[in-house]
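As the next step, I selected for study one protein, both as residues and as discrete backbone shape codes, as given directly below:
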Amino acid sequence: MIFHHFIITESLAGYNLYRNSTQIESDNYIRFVSGDEGNPKIIKLLESKGLSIQTISEPDLDKLLRNEAIKVITAHPARYINLCAHRALWLYYDAEAGSQTAGSLPFVYLGITLSMLGMIGFTLWRYRGPWIKRLMPIWMLFFYIIPIHSMIVSQVRYFLPMVPILICVAAYGTARVIAELRGAINHKSAKTV
């Protein structure tokens, strides 16, 4: 209980849903909405209802913004689904990352990301075993993080807790491939001796 209300996820879920989803009313909607852009829109909505930030409690603001966001989303469901699909991808890759430092850095980042995801897929397929089942509680985080953050707001930082797990799985697969290659080379050289 917070502010005498039951809060399911966070007290600003409605704020994030409204700020990061109502751009689907315009044609340029596949983008992240900053606070500088979203907050004036929220203030304008409050003023249209005779309210202000000072006169509304946080849970009431959350409820109002969530309801308004749901109205916009139900009016444009295809655009919202498209935006959510893009947000799911944004959890893995941010095309703007490093672009201020070097123009080619986003491509390096993309290459590393695709290599790691490819190695993870290969590891889960080639070296499947009881370790996958034992780590099921960790894998379940993916089923929470990806849908929740793609529906509300998506930034790479929300996916960061999963990165060490992904790196460990990719490293395990890489180590197994190297061990198999060494074994094959040693076996082949032992035959020729």
The mean pLDDT is 83. The longest helix spans residues 163-192. The chain is about 70% helix and 0% strand.
